Amino acid sequence: MSAIPKGETERNYAAFMSQLPDLLEKFCGQFALMHGQEIDGFFQSALDAIAVGHEKFGEGGYSVQEVTDEIENLGFYSYAGGAGQA
After folding, report:
1. What is the pLDDT of residues 37-78, one digit of tens each?
2. Which helix (H) or strand (E) holds 26?
3. Which of 27, 19, 13 shows the shortest CA–CA distance to 77?
């Protein structure tokens, strides 16, 4: 079982936020799968993104962000690498 490296979620979030203005036009309402500060894909639901992230990167090796202009604290789900076991 792998754990997400300390600070990885924060780095993924910063990379996501830097791209958000451009993403809103094309991907608003979708969920971005983030790994290594890169967007690996977009999904219609957070659960779909989590399932693919877990399959590709293992538990804790990714994060998921919704493409939206509304700021929302997802709490536990901000660290989606382990959310599939919630």
Report:
1. 999 999 999 999 999 999 999 887 899 999 998 866 555 455
2. helix 8-27
3. 13
Cβ atoms of 53 and 41 within 8 Å: the answer is no
Assign 64 to helix, strand or coil: strand
Output the pLDDT for position 59.
Answer: 83
Whether 16 and 24 have beta carbons less than 8 Å apart is answered as no
The residue extents of the domains of the chain are: 8-79
Q: Cβ(31)–Cβ(47) under 8 Å? A: no
Can you tell me the distance from the alpha carbon of 66 to that of 58, in angstroms, rounded to the nearest whole number? 20
Residues contacting 21, CB < 8 A, separation 6+: none
SS3 57: helix
